[in-house]
Amino acid sequence: MAMHIFLAADHAGFEMKERIKKILLKQAHTVEDIGANAFKPIDDYPQYMHALAKQVLRHGRSFGIMFGGSGQGEAIVANRYPGIRAVVYPAPNPELIVLGREHNDANVLSVGARFLANEEAEQAVKTFLNTPFPGEDRHTRRIAQIDAA
Known about the structure:
Strand order of the largest sheet: 2-1-3-5-4
CATH class: Alpha Beta
CATH topology: Ribose 5-phosphate Isomerase B, Chain: A
Number of helices: 6
Number of domains: 1
Low-confidence stretches: none
CATH superfamily: Sugar-phosphate isomerase, RpiB/LacA/LacB
Structural class: alpha/beta
CATH architecture: 3-Layer(aba) Sandwich
Distance between the termini: 33 Å
Number of strands: 5
Mean pLDDT: 95
Order of helices and strands: EHEHEHEHEHH
């Protein structure tokens, strides 16, 4: 199923973002690259992550995938927006992504590019996009409590 996916990265995640973008486009997804659009060794990640979060919110059932050094700061920026639920993936344990989707209906994946090989990042994105949110009452209730704050 084709999805609408927004991508963003700073200098630390730029190359990985470009690689993932090519893969997603080959899979016939609608992919919008928020930036950076060129490698800039001293850029700051918040501008790209703010823009990604805003686009995910505007487009409803879309997804965001952000790439940074650790993924931590990027997720912090995105999680400032009510309705964004960004999970960080800095290490090769795909179960973390599955739980983020199944329990939290995560709509943004923040990849720690300095901690993953390209193949691990590819698998992480695949897992994120292919794991549905089952909508169990307890998880839906908890998400509503998060969004109510």
